[in-house]
Amino acid sequence: MLEILYSVFIFPLEQVIDWALFTLFKATKSYGVSIILLAFVIQLFMLNITLYFDRRAIIFHSLKDQCDTKIKEFKRVFKGAELQSYIRTLYKQKHFHPIFALFNLGGLALQIPFFIAMIHLVENAEYLQSISFLWIDDLSKPDSITLFDIQIHVLP
After folding, report:
1. 34 vs 25, 31, 122, CA distance in Å?
2. Is the dihedral of CA 119, 125, 130, 133 positive or negative?
3. What is the pLDDT of residue 138?
4. Which of 52, 92, 117, 143 could form a disulfide with 14 if both were Cys (CB 3.0 to 4.6 A apart)?
5. What average pLDDT score do residues 122-147 get?
Protein backbone atom coordinates (compact mmCIF):
# COMPACT_ATOMS: atom_id res chain seq x y z
CA MET A 1 0.00 0.00 0.00
CA LEU A 2 2.80 2.41 0.89
CA GLU A 3 4.53 1.60 -2.39
CA ILE A 4 1.42 2.61 -4.32
CA LEU A 5 1.14 5.90 -2.39
CA TYR A 6 4.82 6.55 -3.00
CA SER A 7 4.48 5.78 -6.72
CA VAL A 8 1.42 7.96 -7.17
CA PHE A 9 2.19 10.97 -4.97
CA ILE A 10 5.79 11.17 -3.84
CA PHE A 11 7.81 9.86 -6.79
CA PRO A 12 6.42 12.32 -9.40
CA LEU A 13 6.90 15.18 -6.97
CA GLU A 14 10.41 13.97 -6.24
CA GLN A 15 11.20 14.00 -9.96
CA VAL A 16 9.96 17.59 -10.34
CA ILE A 17 11.98 18.69 -7.30
CA ASP A 18 15.05 16.88 -8.68
CA TRP A 19 14.67 18.71 -11.99
CA ALA A 20 14.25 22.04 -10.17
CA LEU A 21 17.31 21.36 -8.00
CA PHE A 22 19.42 20.49 -11.03
CA THR A 23 18.21 23.63 -12.84
CA LEU A 24 19.09 25.78 -9.83
CA PHE A 25 22.48 24.06 -9.61
CA LYS A 26 23.21 25.02 -13.22
CA ALA A 27 22.47 28.64 -12.30
CA THR A 28 24.31 28.78 -8.95
CA LYS A 29 27.06 26.11 -9.34
CA SER A 30 26.53 25.14 -5.67
CA TYR A 31 24.28 22.36 -4.43
CA GLY A 32 24.00 23.94 -0.98
CA VAL A 33 22.78 27.26 -2.34
CA SER A 34 20.51 25.37 -4.76
CA ILE A 35 18.86 23.47 -1.91
CA ILE A 36 18.29 26.71 0.00
CA LEU A 37 16.80 28.41 -3.07
CA LEU A 38 14.65 25.37 -3.81
CA ALA A 39 13.27 25.42 -0.26
CA PHE A 40 12.50 29.12 -0.70
CA VAL A 41 10.73 28.53 -4.05
CA ILE A 42 8.66 25.69 -2.58
CA GLN A 43 7.67 27.90 0.37
CA LEU A 44 6.59 30.67 -2.02
CA PHE A 45 4.51 28.13 -3.94
CA MET A 46 2.94 26.80 -0.76
CA LEU A 47 2.30 30.29 0.66
CA ASN A 48 -0.71 30.92 -1.57
CA ILE A 49 -2.22 27.55 -0.68
CA THR A 50 -1.55 28.07 3.02
CA LEU A 51 -3.17 31.51 2.94
CA TYR A 52 -6.23 30.03 1.22
CA PHE A 53 -6.64 27.41 3.94
CA ASP A 54 -6.11 30.07 6.62
CA ARG A 55 -8.96 32.13 5.14
CA ARG A 56 -11.13 29.00 5.11
CA ALA A 57 -10.25 28.40 8.77
CA ILE A 58 -11.35 31.92 9.71
CA ILE A 59 -14.67 31.42 7.92
CA PHE A 60 -15.11 28.04 9.62
CA HIS A 61 -14.43 29.44 13.08
CA SER A 62 -16.85 32.34 12.65
CA LEU A 63 -19.55 29.92 11.46
CA LYS A 64 -18.75 27.57 14.34
CA ASP A 65 -19.05 30.42 16.84
CA GLN A 66 -22.47 31.33 15.41
CA CYS A 67 -23.63 27.72 15.69
CA ASP A 68 -22.22 27.32 19.21
CA THR A 69 -24.12 30.39 20.38
CA LYS A 70 -27.34 29.02 18.96
CA ILE A 71 -26.70 25.54 20.41
CA LYS A 72 -26.23 27.02 23.88
CA GLU A 73 -29.68 28.60 23.54
CA PHE A 74 -31.12 25.27 22.38
CA LYS A 75 -29.57 23.44 25.35
CA ARG A 76 -31.37 25.73 27.78
CA VAL A 77 -34.74 24.79 26.29
CA PHE A 78 -34.42 21.29 24.77
CA LYS A 79 -32.93 17.95 25.79
CA GLY A 80 -32.24 14.54 24.25
CA ALA A 81 -33.44 13.65 20.77
CA GLU A 82 -35.26 16.95 20.35
CA LEU A 83 -32.05 18.88 21.01
CA GLN A 84 -30.16 16.74 18.48
CA SER A 85 -32.89 17.36 15.92
CA TYR A 86 -32.62 21.12 16.35
CA ILE A 87 -28.82 20.96 16.14
CA ARG A 88 -29.00 18.96 12.88
CA THR A 89 -31.49 21.48 11.47
CA LEU A 90 -29.21 24.36 12.45
CA TYR A 91 -26.24 22.69 10.76
CA LYS A 92 -28.26 22.18 7.58
CA GLN A 93 -29.40 25.80 7.55
CA LYS A 94 -25.86 27.11 8.06
CA HIS A 95 -24.30 24.50 5.71
CA PHE A 96 -22.00 23.46 8.55
CA HIS A 97 -20.70 20.19 9.92
CA PRO A 98 -18.11 19.74 12.69
CA ILE A 99 -16.00 17.51 10.44
CA PHE A 100 -15.27 20.60 8.31
CA ALA A 101 -12.63 21.39 10.97
CA LEU A 102 -10.43 18.83 9.22
CA PHE A 103 -10.32 21.04 6.12
CA ASN A 104 -8.20 23.46 8.16
CA LEU A 105 -5.43 20.86 7.98
CA GLY A 106 -5.36 21.08 4.18
CA GLY A 107 -2.33 23.37 4.05
CA LEU A 108 -0.35 21.02 6.24
CA ALA A 109 -1.57 17.96 4.35
CA LEU A 110 -0.27 19.48 1.10
CA GLN A 111 3.12 20.30 2.61
CA ILE A 112 3.78 16.76 3.83
CA PRO A 113 4.31 15.22 0.35
CA PHE A 114 6.77 18.01 -0.53
CA PHE A 115 8.67 17.37 2.69
CA ILE A 116 8.80 13.59 2.14
CA ALA A 117 9.84 14.03 -1.51
CA MET A 118 12.63 16.41 -0.53
CA ILE A 119 13.90 14.00 2.13
CA HIS A 120 13.90 11.10 -0.36
CA LEU A 121 15.67 13.24 -2.94
CA VAL A 122 18.43 14.41 -0.61
CA GLU A 123 18.99 10.97 0.92
CA ASN A 124 19.07 9.09 -2.39
CA ALA A 125 20.76 11.59 -4.72
CA GLU A 126 24.16 10.18 -5.57
CA TYR A 127 25.34 13.55 -6.83
CA LEU A 128 24.94 15.03 -3.31
CA GLN A 129 27.20 12.45 -1.65
CA SER A 130 30.58 13.82 -0.54
CA ILE A 131 29.53 17.37 -1.49
CA SER A 132 30.27 19.81 1.33
CA PHE A 133 28.59 23.11 2.08
CA LEU A 134 29.63 25.40 4.92
CA TRP A 135 30.05 23.11 7.98
CA ILE A 136 28.18 20.17 6.39
CA ASP A 137 30.61 17.53 5.14
CA ASP A 138 28.07 15.50 3.16
CA LEU A 139 24.82 17.02 1.86
CA SER A 140 23.21 13.59 1.60
CA LYS A 141 23.50 13.06 5.38
CA PRO A 142 22.18 15.04 8.35
CA ASP A 143 24.44 17.86 9.45
CA SER A 144 26.06 17.82 12.85
CA ILE A 145 28.39 19.92 14.93
CA THR A 146 30.33 18.26 17.74
CA LEU A 147 30.56 20.29 20.94
CA PHE A 148 31.97 18.67 24.09
CA ASP A 149 31.55 15.18 22.59
CA ILE A 150 27.86 15.85 21.86
CA GLN A 151 26.61 15.95 18.29
CA ILE A 152 24.17 18.80 17.64
CA HIS A 153 22.05 18.85 14.48
CA VAL A 154 21.65 22.49 13.55
CA LEU A 155 19.48 22.08 10.46
CA PRO A 156 16.31 20.01 10.47
Report:
1. 5, 5, 12
2. negative
3. 66
4. 117
5. 71
> Whose CA is closest to 120, among 16, 49, 27?
16
For residue 94, which amino acid is it? K
3-state secondary structure 39-82: HHHHHHHHHHHHHHHHHHHHHHHHHHHHHHHHHHHHHHHCCHHH
- The DSSP bridge partners found for residue 152 are 145
Quickly state the pLDDT bin for 155 (edges 50, 70, 90).
low
Residue 132 identity (one-letter amino acid): S
Could you tell me the pTM of the whole model?
0.65
- 32 and 139 in contact (C-beta within 8 Å)? yes
Q: Alpha-carbon torsion 124, 125, 130, 132, what sign?
A: negative
Compute the distance between CA of residue 63 and CA of residue 124 in angstroms, rounded to an integer: 46
With beta carbons less than 8 A apart as the criterion, state whether 38 and 17 touch. yes
Q: Counting every residue, how long is the chain?
A: 156
